[in-house]
Structure formats: structure tokens, C-alpha cells
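Risk mitigation, structural track. In case the binding assays with phosphoenolpyruvate fail to produce interpretable data, a predicted complex structure has been prepared as a fallback.
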Amino acid sequence: MRKPIIAGNWKMNTSTSEATELVKAMKKKLVSITGVDKVLCPPFVSLSLVKDLIKGTSIKLGAQNMHYERSGAYTGEISPVMLSGLCSFVILGHSERRALFEESDQIVNKKVQAALDLQLTPIVCVGESLEQNEAGETIDVVTRQIKAAFNGVESLQGTVVAYEPIWAIGTGKAARGDQANAIHKVIRSVIAQLYDDSVAQDMRIQYGGSVTAANIAEFIGQPEIDGALVGGASLKAPEFISIVEQTSKIKKTG
Ligand code: PEP
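Fallback model:
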């Protein structure tokens, strides 16, 4: 049984005081929900304060990105060494990083390796654009991204994959549960080819793209979907709590 995982990607939102308020608004309820890994991914500048606010609870902390080098002349960058000890997860290869900051598959691969070297758990994002989707290229794109991200990676150490069709991110147009489930199945089979069946069966694969409290059940009810990477809805405490609550109930009974 894979433990479901819901991660909130706050993106470039929340001042430090807003981050504090948001954590305070969800902490008590989130802590009371069992059977789900709950991960908050605030901006870098709020990692430390969120870490203190969730100390001693079951809530986990993640970063939204990092550089692959451990230190050096990379003005403005954050290294895996800086994150280790501060948080346990790191989102890598988010489509916004790939599209807006020109992160290639090769860069994502270096980041995955660098994170694992320091016992940070990557949440590796993959997903096709609308054009690629309409051209019937989804499986090829996602397969290429997965193979590239894990190229030369010996052991996945709990790595999570997030399947996020780009056309569904922040658009309000989520994929259908069965569509996403089918792609998750493909991802699992690629992982089985790269590693083995038991590694593939153990890997948690999240869906991401316009997940809300109103549609989470459709995704979580699917056998290949082990959670969600939530953007916009993770900034609203009651909605994020509801997403986590529904996930816990459905996976426990399902
Ligand atoms: C995301 O940022 O990974 C995401 C899926 O965003 P949203 O939920 O807002 O579509």
C-alpha cells in the first residue's frame, strides 16, 4: 500500500506574515488527519519560519526548487546543502521552471541526483503541453521526461513523481481522473523498465493541475493516483484541508 501524499505548492505567493497566517489556519486540522503525507512548499524565505511552526507535527516541509551545485558563484540560487536539514522534500522540474527558466531535462536530472545525494526527497514534475497533448504525444513526452530525470540515478529513495499536464495547471481545466490514471500507469511501467516492478509499485505518483476540493475525489478514487500536487487551492486553508481530508477518507476506504 502506497501512502497518499498531498503537497501544496505555494509558488511565488505569501509574504512571511501571510505564510505564518496560512500555516496557523491549517495546522490543527491537518495534524488531525492521518494516513496521508501532508507537505507544505512555501517560498524559500518562509521555509525556516514554517519549519518552526510545524515542528513536532506530522506536517512535512518542501522547497519549490534548488540548484544542483552545493555552493559557489551562483548569485541568487539556493543549494541542496542549504535545504538539507531545513526541509525533507523538493519540487523539481515544475513546468513553470522548465518553461520560464529554461530548465532542460538534463538540468532536472542533475537536480534529482543532487537532491538524493543529500537525502532530500524529490517531487519530480512531468507533463505535456496542450499542443503535445493534441498531437497525441503525451506518452512520448512523459516517457522522455521520466527517463531523462532518472538517467544514472541508482536508487530512487522514495522519490515522488507528479504528473502535471501543463494545460491543466492554473487553468481551472483539470484532466479527467481516468485520463490521468492512464498516464500514471504509463509512468509506472517506465519506472518498472528502468528499475523493477517492486520499485515501480512502491513509487508514489501524484496528479497536479487545477486540483480543488470539488474534484480531488475523482483523482484519488483512481488506483494509480497516490495524491496531488496542489497549486492555487493550497493557498486557501479550508480548501487544502478538505483536499487532505477527502484523500484520507477515500484511500482508507477504497
Ligand atoms: C502546480 O503548481 O503544480 C499546480 C498544479 O497548480 P494549480 O493547482 O494551481 O493548477
